[in-house]
């Protein structure tokens, strides 16, 4: 096996392990909010933390979940061969969604996805964040913001001339949609809860 392949595998493992850090659970327990997996949807992300009524905890979860995705990319950009960082970022997203420590029952990956994209290309990342915020504010439904932002990822990558990221962007979009399949069903039925609703 070549050195480049070994490096790629190593950074995929590092990215995955960074992604598995369950900040939502850690913050909720540290702030006395209970076991996040027994609250609301049972999800470990910021949207479910918000259902505890603690906006500060939700904001901290959002930032830290995004940070771990960005960290996986930035470390790989600094230390790994060229082209490895995007796969380390994708691995971090997979780690958040399917953490080995939680029997592969993780979050839906939106904050981590945004952190990855921001670290790979901040113009694309800012456009994705703006898309997420606009759609979430207009609809007042978190999943609509997430799904709209994910769908826009490859569009913004293409427009910002980051065609080198299109394959990875497509895979991230597919994973975000897969993790939101229950939300998609509720959206079709008109039963998806509004932001902040417990």
From TrEMBL:
Its main location: membrane. It is found in: Cell membrane. Keywords: Acyltransferase, Cell membrane, Lipid biosynthesis, Lipid metabolism, Membrane, Phospholipid biosynthesis, Phospholipid metabolism, Transferase, Transmembrane, Transmembrane helix. The gene is plsY. Pathway: Lipid metabolism; phospholipid metabolism. It comes from Tropicibacter oceani. Belongs to the PlsY family. The chain crosses the membrane at residues 6-28, 57-78, 84-101, 113-135, 155-178. Catalyzes the transfer of an acyl group from acyl-phosphate (acyl-PO(4)) to glycerol-3-phosphate (G3P) to form lysophosphatidic acid (LPA). This enzyme utilizes acyl-phosphate as fatty acyl donor, but not acyl-CoA or acyl-ACP. It catalyses: an acyl phosphate + sn-glycerol 3-phosphate = a 1-acyl-sn-glycero-3-phosphate + phosphate. It is an enzyme of class 2 (transferase). This is Glycerol-3-phosphate acyltransferase. Probably interacts with PlsX. The keyword Zinc-finger does not apply. Its EC number is 2.3.1.275. One of its GO terms (molecular function) is glycerol-3-phosphate O-acyltransferase activity. It is a multi-pass membrane protein. HAMAP family: PlsY.
């Amino acid at each position: 096996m070549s050195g480049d392949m070994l490096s790629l595998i190593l950074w995929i493992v590092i990215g995955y392990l960074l992604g598995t850090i369950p900040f939502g659970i850690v913050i909720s327990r540290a702030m006395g909010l209970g076991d996040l997996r027994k609250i609301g949807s049972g999800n470990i992300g910021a949207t479910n933390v918000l259902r505890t009524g603690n906006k500060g905890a939700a904001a901290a979860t959002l930032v830290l979940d995004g940070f771990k995705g960005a960290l996986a990319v930035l470390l790989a950009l600094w230390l790994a061969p060229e082209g490895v960082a995007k796969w380390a970022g994708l691995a971090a997203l997979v780690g958040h969604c399917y953490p080995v420590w939680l029997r592969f029952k993780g979050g839906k990956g939106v904050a981590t996805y945004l952190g990855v994209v921001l670290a790979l290309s901040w113009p694309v990342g800012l456009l994705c964040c703006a898309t997420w915020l606009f759609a979430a504010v207009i609809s007042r439904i978190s999943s609509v913001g997430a799904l709209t932002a994910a769908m826009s990822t490859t569009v913004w990558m293409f427009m910002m001339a980051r065609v080198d990221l299109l394959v990875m962007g497509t895979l991230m979009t597919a994973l975000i949609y897969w993790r939101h399949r229950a939300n998609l069903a509720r959206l079709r039925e008109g039963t998806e809860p509004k932001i902040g609703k417990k």
